[in-house]
Specification:
single chain; 275 residues; 10 helices; TIM Barrel; alpha/beta; 13% strand; eight-stranded parallel beta sheet
Length: 275
């Protein structure tokens, strides 16, 4: 079974400290990522450049994808405040290894862009160009739904299970009803990235398994993508893998293969070879 991680970060510098719980290290390189992937049995990974602490990370990710096209692809970004960015979206996927766009929109100042008009051009432009867009839609589910409904041909991805970013255990799932309601929109998928973070219990994180099952049942195996965000995980990379491949009794066979990589690659049109 080919295993594809739906989200990792690599960086070559830290202009500001890495955000949140990410490793407080000066760099996490392509080669370091490959070493950890190989040790964990992960075949490929979708890089999300951490632009907020390494402004050069977009190019670093593209360089990794060019050097290792069977191991890496990229969900890149550009500065939304820059008026010249409107000219960058056309032909965005012509860059080797570039699959789509991703802005976390974590900060309150960034979330204001959702309503002040700054982002209004992005959604139709990405829809026209056939560019998937990922964001932390669980933070603003109502606005995310509005965008997805208005642009039905725009493939959108909710990051990090769409759960309460600041909650753990039951508190992580307080918005679960709104998340699973998004599954009714066929252009919305969810990345089950960073799932272990939402549990204060040890491996195999039994107290979040039912919540993950509900998300899986809503979105199905083609729109529910395993991933790690490994540089902020409290468990090992291998445990992130086996949590899904060995510990979820409801995830087996072809469904497991889809969740562990095939579904993601089909969604973003990453032409990796699967058996």
């Amino acid at each position: 079974m080919k295993i594809v991680d739906a989200q990792i970060h690599i960086w070559s510098q830290t202009v500001t400290p890495p955000s949140g719980l990410h490793r407080k290290v000066e760099k996490f390189t392509t080669e370091q990522a490959l070493k950890e992937m190989d040790e964990a049995g992960v075949d490929a990974a979708l890089i999300h450049p951490p632009y907020s602490w390494d402004p050069d990370s977009n190019q670093l990710a593209l360089d990794a994808a060019r050097k290792y096209p069977d191991r890496f692809a990229v969900m890149g970004q550009f500065p939304l405040q820059d008026p010249e960015s409107r000219n960058r979206i056309k032909g965005w996927r012509d860059q080797p290894g570039m699959m789509g766009l991703r802005w976390a929109l974590l900060q309150p100042a960034e979330q204001k862009w959702l309503n002040d008009g700054l982002l209004d051009w992005v959604w139709p432009a990405a829809e026209k160009e056939g560019i998937p867009v990922a964001t932390m839609g669980g933070i603003f589910p109502d606005k995310f739904r509005e965008i997805a409904e208005k642009h039905p041909n725009l493939k959108m991805i909710v990051d990090h299970c769409g759960l309460n970013r600041h909650g753990q255990d039951e508190e992580a799932f307080i918005h679960l009803d709104k998340l699973v309601a998004l599954a009714k929109l066929p252009n919305v998928a969810v990345k089950a990235t960073g799932a272990p973070h939402y549990s204060t219990k040890g491996y195999p994180f039994k107290n979040i398994q039912d919540g993950l099952h509900r998300i899986f049942d809503a979105f199905g195996p083609k729109r529910f993508f395993w991933g790690t965000d490994i540089t902020r995980m409290q468990c090992t990379y291998r445990q992130c893998v086996t949590f899904f491949t060995e510990e979820l009794p409801w995830l087996k066979g072809r469904d497991l293969e889809d969740v562990m990589g095939r579904g993601l690659c089909e969604w973003i049109d990453w032409k990796l070879k699967f058996d």
